[in-house]
Design brief:
Length: about 80
């Protein structure tokens, strides 16, 4: 991909990670480039991943879902 005068390769990676809600994983990678415009997106990535995967975990653990949910609610404020 050809980059213009004002677009750095790190910026393209930032946009890709931001658009897929995987910025928290990109932030951990060795090729991470700091950007004050995208750094806050790591928390949105974690939130989206939680909302996508938590219901599936509850379905898998449906017999023990109440116990797991109560444990999470009890541990979360710590």
């Amino acid at each position: 991909m050809a980059t213009g005068k004002f677009v750095s390769p790190g910026l393209i990676d930032n946009w890709a990670a931001a658009g897929t809600f995987t910025y928290n994983f990109y932030h951990l990678s060795a090729g991470w480039v700091h950007s004050r415009f995208f750094t806050h997106l790591w928390s949105l990535g974690v939130e989206e991943q939680f909302y996508l995967f938590f219901p599936f975990l509850m379905v898998l653990w449906r017999r023990h879902a109440t116990v797991v949910l109560l444990a999470i609610v009890a541990i979360e404020p710590l």
